[in-house]
Specification:
Blueprint: H1 18-34, H2 39-60, H3 71-84, H4 92-101, E1 118-119, H5 124-133, E2 138-142, H6 152-155, E3 156-161, H7 162-173, H8 183-190, H9 193-197, E4 215-216, H10 221-228, E5 235-240, E6 245-251, H11 252-260, H12 266-272, E7 292-293, H13 298-308, E8 312-316, E9 323-328, H14 333-337, H15 350-364, E10 376-377, H16 383-393, E11 397-401, E12 407-412, H17 413-418
Parallel strand pairs: 1-2, 4-5, 7-8, 10-11
Antiparallel strand pairs: 2-3, 5-6, 8-9, 11-12
Helix pairs in contact: 1-2, 3-4, 11-16
């Protein structure tokens, strides 16, 4: 994979704008043949025009990014320049594939939470607290027993996810003699030795996917996007082989944020102005959507997430048609870290859980997607509109409803990314043979 994914010369700083320079040189030769005295004027005119066009594009085309000044927006401009020089016979999808294959993953902005690493001897309780404190869904696990000169594969034992810990806890506790339907279950769980004393290294088999999948600096955007979509990775570390450390962590949410910053650019508008239904979204029929009624126990909702291997599901009213909220694996943190949510509750339903969490957030945070109720869209909305909603609301999924507000489907970050690129035939060779689909209990 490394040989195929190295950065091409067309993406280096020196050669980045070579088509413009080639055309400029040709114009100069023609000018010399016509009138040597106008050579300087031709040069100045071409350079001024190019500079003016770039300045206009940077300042005007994306009101979202405030003048294309963000790292993600500048990255979008690199895609724009590559898009402009693609062969005319290529389809828009082929053009995007080619553009992303020409950009190294080292160009992706660094994750602000990169400095957070989980030590392998941390207890599950400590990991939950650390992830909740930094509002993270995942973090690298550093092997405390690794020598200082260890390679990255020995220095890290994987990427632990909030959802992975929750699912492991639920699996291990199913045989416990506690009240499995009420708040007592969670009270017993957070005070148990299972929660307090189990080390994150002890459950590495539940989140370390074999092989521990990471990007190298020589890999490109196309590889990254395919792994985050088709191959269901939620986060991808970028490793520095020389220093033996993780240099960056790229998540689905970070990619969608990059796309949101590219609004206004030609390549984005060509793709982003398409309606969801034109791209085959949502991918599942209403009858296939996994959901939970508001009067069902919230513990059942979390178990359903684990059994189905999904990150979230809608909470619907008794009719089963209209969504009233969303529950994700990340939300179980409130049951593990905020006792007052289930205090004095013999049994807490999914609807009561949503109301309790919203009440808690109003008092302690004041801003959260859970406070805004169900965030939805329509089939006729554009991909751009959905991307802006997902990014601005900082959510992982959005529900599709009809004119009457009835649930018709769900669109996730992965769904969006999967419609951006396609996998060329034989792109990964036999790399995934024997390891896909993922083992039932595997987590990245």
């Amino acid at each position: 994979m490394q040989d195929r994914c190295t950065l091409t010369d067309a993406c280096t700083t020196e050669s980045f704008d070579w088509p413009s320079r080639l055309l400029l040189g040709f114009a100069i030769v023609v000018a010399q043949q016509r009138d040597p005295r106008r050579v300087g004027e031709e040069i100045e005119s071409q350079q001024a025009s190019q500079s003016q066009n770039r300045a206009y594009r940077e300042m005007e085309e994306s009101p979202r990014s405030g003048g294309m000044s963000s790292p993600e927006a500048k990255l979008g401009l690199r895609v724009e320049d590559l898009w402009d020089i693609q062969e005319p016979q290529l389809t828009p999808s082929e053009k995007l594939n080619s553009c992303f294959e020409s950009i190294s993953v080292t160009s992706f902005p660094s994750a602000p939470s990169l400095q957070v690493e989980i030590k392998s001897d941390s207890s599950l309780a400590e990991v939950i607290q650390e992830l909740s404190k930094h509002k993270l869904l995942s973090a690298p696990v550093c092997n405390v027993e690794a020598p200082e000169d260890a390679s990255w594969i020995d220095r890290y034992i994987g990427i632990v996810e909030f959802a992975g810990i929750v699912q492991w806890l639920l699996e291990q506790s199913e045989g416990a003699s506690v009240d499995m339907t009420g708040g007592g279950f969670f009270e017993n769980l957070i005070s148990s030795n299972l929660y307090k004393n189990t080390k994150v290294k002890d459950i590495s088999g539940s989140f370390r996917w074999a092989p521990f999948l990471a990007l190298q600096k020589s890999d490109n955007f196309l590889t990254m996007l395919l792994l985050l979509s088709k191959y269901k990775m939620k986060s991808l570390p970028v490793v520095d082989l020389g220093e033996g450390k993780i240099d960056n962590v790229i998540t689905q949410a970070a990619v969608v944020h990059m796309l949101a910053e590219c609004v206004g650019l030609h390549w984005f508008e060509n793709w982003g102005t398409k309606k969801l239904c034109q791209l085959g979204l949502p991918t599942m029929k209403p009858g296939q959507l996994i959901k939970v009624c508001g009067d069902e126990p919230v513990l059942g909702a979390f178990r359903l997430l684990r059994q189905k291997g999904i990150g979230g599901l809608p909470v619907v009213e008794s009719s089963g048609k209209k969504p009233i909220g969303n529950i994700s694996m990340r939300d179980v943190q409130f049951l593990l870290t905020v006792p007052e949510i289930y205090k004095n509750e013999r049994s807490i339903t999914a609807k009561e859980f949503l109301m309790a969490v919203r009440s808690y957030l109003e008092k302690h945070q004041g801003a959260s997607p859970m406070l805004r109720g169900t965030i939805s869209c329509r089939k006729d909305d554009t991909v751009k509109e959905v991307i802006l909603k997902l990014d601005s609301e900082k959510i992982q999924r959005i529900y599709v409803v009809n004119e009457g507000g009835d649930l018709e489907g769900v669109i996730t970050l992965r769904d969006i990314i999967s419609k951006l690129v396609h996998e060329p035939r034989g792109y990964f060779g036999d790399f995934f043979d024997g390891v896909t689909p993922l083992p039932p209990n595997s987590r990245v």
